[in-house]
Amino acid sequence: MKTVLPDSRKFPRFAGVSTFCRYPLLELVAAKSLPVDWVIYGVPFDGGVTYRPGARFGPRAVRDASQYVKRYSIEHDVDVCEVLSMADAGDAPVSPYDCKENAERVAAFATGLGDAGHTKLLAVGGDHSIAYANIKATWQRRGKPAAGLACVHFDSHLDTVDSVWGEKWGHASPFIRAIEEGLIDPKRMISIGIKGPLNSKADLDYAKDHGVRIVTHAQWQDDGPAQLAAFVAEVGAAEAYLTFDIDCVDPAYAPGTGTLCPGGFTSAEVLGILRSLRGMNVVGADVVEVLPDRDPAGITAFLAAHVVFEVLCLDAVRRKG
Ligand code: MN
Ligand code: MN
Fold first, then answer.
1. Ligand 1 centroid vs 4 CA: distance in angstroms?
2. Distance from the CA of 259 to the center of ligand 2, in angstroms?
3. Terminus-to-terminus CA distance in the chain, angstroms?
4. If you measure from the C-alpha of residue 147 to the centroid of ligand 1, how many angstroms do you get, rounded to a whole number?
5. Which of 121, 126, 247, 305 has its CA at 20 to 30 Å from residue 292's CA atom?
6. Centroid of ligand 1 to alpha carbon of 130 (angstroms)
7. Across-strand partners of 123?
8. 201 alpha carbon to ligand 2 midpoint, in Å?
9. For the domain 20-320, what is the CATH superfamily, name and number?
10. Are 105 and 92 a contacting pair, CB within 8 Å?
11. CA–CA separation, 19 vs 24, rounded Å?
12. 0.90 cut: is pTM over it?
């Protein structure tokens, strides 16, 4: 067993101190000098939002919701705890008033987690601006690949706006910054679930001009699965980053988010799409934009916790072969 969990038949899931999916704290695993395949950490930052704030409470809510995430995937026939060593690294230090300083702090924290050459990073936000920091840390730890990482992006929004209110590091801009710095290869990036209305047609220009493949929600219903399958085949075993903004899901299923957009994926659809990425070499990920104050039944945080699980499953099933 790579990850030892409390036995839920003896220690109920509703008891004890919450860690992501009940995985052990990183410091406890590190004290035993055990290798860690994935660290999961929270980034309680929402200083980059353009509309409703509150995602700073996301990590705490997702941790709590994740107590009921189990370990064996029926669909993939894999027990993630048998295949992967996973740990909760706690929350990154944040700089609540300053997006750029926050990005630098979080990236520095993430860069130091576990074994840089081995341990993969999964960040739970927080608003989407925090993706830049986790992408940067992942890119550095993978040896700064000159071509940049491939990227699968789930969102209602492209997040390639140059600046909002003079801020270049907010949640509308993580991918323009990551592409500018060569952390992500836009020609091997796909944005899934994009929908409008937009502020203007020109909002599509940066992504289109740089070769990002855009699959709008409407297109998904047409030939989206085939487009994604072709992308997965083309990327092959190349190192890929997965970024998941929960607002790609319909507000009927994920109301707890800050810039919601009606007419999105159902929970079942999005979990199925994640499973269809089987075979990809996911080397880093984030799950962002959960806003617990707008999530009265906790279903958004609960879905986010299961998205974390599905991402881990992709690596587990790949290693299992
Ligand atoms: Mn986003
Ligand atoms: Mn979004």
1. 33
2. 6
3. 17
4. 23
5. 121
6. 10
7. 41, 286
8. 17
9. Ureohydrolase domain (3.40.800.10)
10. yes
11. 7
12. yes
| CB hemisphere CA count around 318 (13 angstroms) | 19
The residue whose two tokens read 């710095």 is: 181
Contact between 186 and 153 under an 8 Å Cβ cutoff? The reply is no
Which segment of 3-17, 53-67, 181-195, 226-240 scores lowest on mean pLDDT? 3-17
Scanning the chain, the segments in alpha helix (DSSP H) are 26-31, 58-65, 80-83, 99-111, 130-141, 174-180, 205-209, 217-235, 267-275, 299-320
Domain limits, the chain: 20-320
Torsion 65-67-68-70 (CA) sign: positive
> How confident is the model at residue 208, as a pLDDT?
98
Q: Is the peptide bond before 197 cis (omega within 30 degrees of 0)?
A: yes
Instruction: Write out the H or E segment, with its range, that includes residue 283.
Output: strand 281-288
Would you state the pLDDT for residue 84? 97
Tally of CB atoms within 10 A around 10: 6
Give residue 141 CA to ligand 1 midpoint distance, Å.
24
